[in-house]
Design goal:
Order of helices and strands: EEEEEHEHEHEHHEHEEHHEHE
Largest sheet: 6 strands, parallel
Distance between the termini: 12 Å
Strand order of the largest sheet: 2-6-7-5-8-9
Radius of gyration: 23 Å
């Protein structure tokens, strides 16, 4: 699979990045699995924030108005005073909630955002998310972006997540949900490789814990703004996907991923829209074109000059304009468009490139991924 290089962003001046862990129970396996022999941690340590940096901008959990301290919950002190009055909208931090299956890559995604200057909190109870945002708002702009990892280790707080999200919406907080998932086979392989039990398996098997977790997270997955399937991704490919979505200084209205694939290898599980190019003649049966891919100009011309190809491209581009407008109205910021053919080498690759060019011309930031090209 090849993916265009994501944009690199500099760490914003004055941003405070820390990765704080509030629980050491059931550490996740190395995720996603490495296919190139490199370390999953990519040379970085796994230590949490130093003492005194557990809250943004040096906050120590006090309200700051009457000096009272709140009762502790999971070892954290939370202010009990009233909400700060008159906090300008610009001071409210941007929020990303990272969740998904254990072993699917939540830690890697969190570390990527940390490297981009986000203030990252791992395994924060959902009930404390609004408090975290409030503390960030008091930091005078020093903590402008917060990422929170929510997982089943905090499952006794998980029922509070929906209430917290409603609270954030009422305050006008810009928040997004990133959901990481993977196939059962990949998750089992990752847990077995580190010889750790699944957090929810109890006295059963790993697959029992995975099934229980999928059911628990089903509704949250449906509410996610961005779903990333890491079944076939290594650490570097996952980081590239996160960089492509979050590295920009100015966030576009809509970001699209156009993914070519082969039906014989299965549908992409994170696809929002799927287009089938098997109605076009297959260049595989043209001897002089068979060795090449859809990136070759001769193959691309052959595909686009077939009856119905240009008409499909024009009308599908128009359909995407209609869909994109609806996504923007509904606040959806990310869309994955899967374009398939039999093997994912010729027709789907050529059409994906042309479709991506149309989207770019319409002002949609677009990443092209050829999932199965070169797989045969």
């Amino acid at each position: 699979m090849s993916e265009r290089d994501p944009r690199q962003a500099k760490d914003p001046a004055g941003s405070q990045a820390a990765h704080k862990k509030t629980s050491e129970d059931h550490p996740e396996p190395s995720e996603p699995s490495e296919r190139d022999g490199h370390s999953e941690r990519d040379g970085r340590g796994d230590q949490g924030a130093p003492d005194g940096q557990g809250a943004p901008d040096g906050q120590d959990g006090r309200d700051g108005q009457d000096g009272r301290e709140a009762p502790q919950e999971d070892g954290a002190q939370v202010g009990t005073g009233s909400e700060p009055a008159g906090v300008p909208d610009a001071a409210i931090p941007e929020l990303v909630i990272i969740s998904g299956m254990s072993g699917a890559g939540r830690s890697t995604a969190a570390k990527c955002l940390e490297d981009l200057g986000w203030f990252v909190v791992d395994n924060l109870p959902p009930a404390l998310i609004p408090t975290m945002v409030e503390l960030g708002a008091r930091s005078q702009g020093n903590v402008a972006r917060i990422a929170v990892v929510v997982d089943v280790r905090g499952r006794r707080f998980f029922d509070n997540l929906r209430e917290s999200l409603a609270d954030l919406d009422a305050r006008g907080v810009t928040r997004r949900i990133v959901f990481l998932e993977s196939s059962d086979e990949a998750l089992v392989r990752r847990f077995e490789s580190v010889r750790r039990p699944h957090p929810l398996q109890g006295d059963g098997r790993i697959v029992d814990g995975i099934a229980a977790e999928r059911e628990l997270l089903r509704e949250l997955r449906g509410d996610a703004d961005l779903v990333i399937d890491t079944s076939s991704l290594n650490v570097h490919e996952l980081r590239a996907k996160m960089d492509a979505q979050f590295a920009g200084e100015e966030e576009p209205e809509l970001r699209a991923t156009v993914m070519s694939f082969g039906f014989k290898y299965g549908l992409p599980v994170d696809a929002d829209l799927v287009a089938d190019m098997r109605f076009l003649p297959n260049p595989h049966w043209v001897p002089e074109l068979r060795p090449f891919t859809g990136l070759n100009e001769e193959v691309s011309s052959y595909v686009l000059n077939q009856p119905g190809a240009k008409e499909f491209l024009d009308r599908y581009a128009e359909l995407l304009q209609l869909v994109a407008a609806g996504y923007r109205r509904e606040g959806k910021r990310y869309v994955t468009i899967a374009v398939g053919c039999t093997g994912g080498k010729h027709r789907s690759v050529a059409m994906s490139e042309k479709l991506a060019a149309r989207l770019v011309a319409e002002g949609v930031e677009t990443v092209v991924v050829h999932r199965d090209m070169g797989r045969e």
